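Might I ask for a little of your time on a matter of protein folding? The record follows directly beneath this note:
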Amino acid sequence: MRKKLFFSFTAIVVIVAVTLAGIKIDRVHKARQCGILLAFDDYGAENWENCFDLFDKYNVKVTFFINAEEPTDFCYKAIERGHEIAYHTKNHVRLTEVSQEEVYQQAIAPIEVFREHGIELTTFAYPYGAYNEQLNEQLLQHYNVLRGAYAYQLAGKHEMRHGFVESLSIDNINYESEEMFRKQIDTVLDDLDNSVGGVAGLYSHAISEGAWCVSQERLEYIFQKAQEKGIQFYTYRELQEN
């Protein structure tokens, strides 16, 4: 009887130890896992929604920085699909050129409106990438992360939990050729692949062939290459919560 109890106790200890080891390994893997923060700005609900299946195909989660006074049907559909709704002011104004009252009405007051409708806004992107240190200080009292619009930045995940971060535009207008686009993307992906837990932000607007858009073919190039390298896609809020 004592032998049976001993062996049962030993088995339980082994199971617990293996389980805890597995949890620790999983945490280490997640901490080391590099990733892309892919975002779309302004408001292209139908255009974005038409690409939900494309995102699902590659297990891509994105952040939509929207211009809206209150949540729309699109917001809830995006959240149901695992994406993030973030904010980009009510009317896409250049915050560096308006009064403090207008800053409040455009970027801060809507937080409570969205909250009342069940959506927490924790990430903000500056329209036109226009910001200054005073705005950063003011808005970081209300948002966890503020995003710029003009630079490629490879950062650690902890840097995405609070503060200002940059992001690289992948709009078609920035690239004179497909070769130039792919060279830029390959550089970003190689940098991520060689990092430990690094993340980089990419953003566009609509998904189309226009100037201030990214084509579906170019998105698929990013998705396929990232998949080959085992690079994950995160939302900004996901990194704030982990």
Summary: The domain at 35-240 is CATH 3.20.20.370 (TIM Barrel). DSSP finds nine helices and twelve strands in the chain. Residues 96 and 131 are 6 Å apart (CA to CA).
